[in-house]
Amino acid sequence: MDQPTTDATSPRGELRRNPVSGKLAIIAPGRAARPHGAPGTGAQAAAPGAETTPAPCPFCGGNEALTPPEVEARRPEGGAPDSPGWTVRVVPNKYPALAGMHEVILHSPIHDVELEDLGDDDLTAAIACYQRRIGAQLDAGAAAATLVVNRGAGSGASLEHPHAQLFATPVVPSLLQDELMEFDRHRNRYGTCVLCDEIAGSGERLVFCGEHVAWTPLASRFSHELWLAPAAHVADVRDADPALLGGALRRALVAVRTATAGAPFNLWIHTAPAVLRGAFHWHIEIAPRLSDIAGFELGSDMAIVDVDPLAAAAALREAGGALRRRQNDRRREE
Ligand SMILES: [Zn+2]
Ligand SMILES: [Zn+2]
Ligand SMILES: [Zn+2]
After folding, report:
1. Which ligand is in closest contact with the Cα of 160?
2. Any idea which ligand is nearest the CA of 178?
3. Is 6 domain-assigned?
4. Looking at the CA of 177, which ligand is closest?
5. Which of 98, 226, 242, 288 could share a disulfide with 13, CB 3.0–4.6 Å?
6. Is 275 left (phi over 0), alpha (psi -120 to 50) or beta?
7. Number of domains in the chain
8. What residue numbers bound the domain in which 216 lies?
9. How far is the CA of 61 from the centre of ligand 1 (A)?
């Protein structure tokens, strides 16, 4: 496993651990230069009028020269690297948190196409790309790979063009480490998987179920927080069928978008680290950002949530039902 660099002047990002709290931080001064990348509040980073910037979008089709050379891309009609004609494109982050370990995954060359707006084939290709890049980073020696999507003002998104980011880290991030400990603790005590038990006990907090299950956690940290996981006990997201996962993710995203009236959100995938010693069950967490994180949350690491997860689940189910009704109406019209 790589040791964190000790070069304090490195513009490329450095992993540090606070000896008092044990918390990890990546100190990455080079990222301050990124577009709209105001260090500081998310509101500043992507405030509604901030998109009046004259700079062309580096993630739009046709602007490939504005990004570092691509890592990989899907071009159904063929074509040269770093040219238009792609449907999914992976580039290194121009302003990496940790050099060589921070990628941007573009799921569409079109500026306002969100994941859930993609057709089945493109969505499946995007999910398969996530899985492939997670695998590539773990194979290259990362301890863990964290895929995130930031959407909307207040989510920390520095560019509006929808994209995912993959952060490979030389250590297992703190939250995933905490989860791995809970999986072990639960298994030692009850002999079962804590996430399988969480799904089985979700009851009225279940939003939908099938090959993948979506529910609101009893102890949600965000209003309308939604988790998505395979119904079967599987540790690694790379083992998911990308078409089935894409369909479930679309359903979850549409439910969250509808139930929260398009609120900003963060999404992340928790999947098995490179070396998994105990049990794990991969899952996606979707965290709508309806209110700011304030002093108590930061100072206590405890959330205050003002929507009951039971009520949130009902709203999310209703939002999902509304989607199906609209689709049925469309089908009837056609
Ligand atoms: Zn764009
Ligand atoms: Zn499980
Ligand atoms: Zn998790």
Report:
1. 1
2. 3
3. no
4. 3
5. 98
6. beta
7. 1
8. 14-333
9. 7
Give residue 194 CA to ligand 2 midpoint distance, Å: 6
Name the residue among 96, 161, 106 with its Cα closest to residue 133: 106
Please tell me the distance between residue 282's alpha carbon and the centre of ligand 2 in angstroms: 8
Specify whether the CB–CB gap between 309 and 287 falls below 8 A.
no
Instruction: At 260, list the tokens.
Output: 């929260």
Classify residue 246: in a domain, yes or no. Answer: yes
Ligand nearest to the CA of 179: 3
Is residue 7 in a domain?
no
Burial of 294 (0-12, 13-18, 19+ CB in 10 A): exposed
Which ligand approaches the C-alpha of residue 112 most closely?
Answer: 1
Question: Residue 225 is part of a domain; what is its CATH number?
Answer: 3.30.428.10
Q: Which ligand is nearest to the CA of 272?
A: 3
Report the alpha-carbon angle 244-126-207, nearest 5: 40
Instruction: Look at residue 225 and tell me whether its pLDDT is greater than 90.
Output: yes
- Per residue in 231-257, pLDDT tens? 999 999 999 999 999 999 999 999 999
Instruction: Determine the distance separating the centroid of ligand 2 and the alpha carbon of 163, expressed in angstroms.
Output: 29
Mean pLDDT across 288-314: 93
Residue 94 lies in a domain: yes
Q: How far is the CA of 111 from the centre of ligand 1 (A)?
A: 4
Strand (E) or helix (H) holding 44? helix 42-45
44 Cβ neighbours under 8 A, 6+ residues apart: 38
Nearest ligand by distance to the CA of 173:
3
Whole-number Å distance, alpha carbon 65 to ligand 1 midpoint, is 13
Global confidence as pTM: 0.88
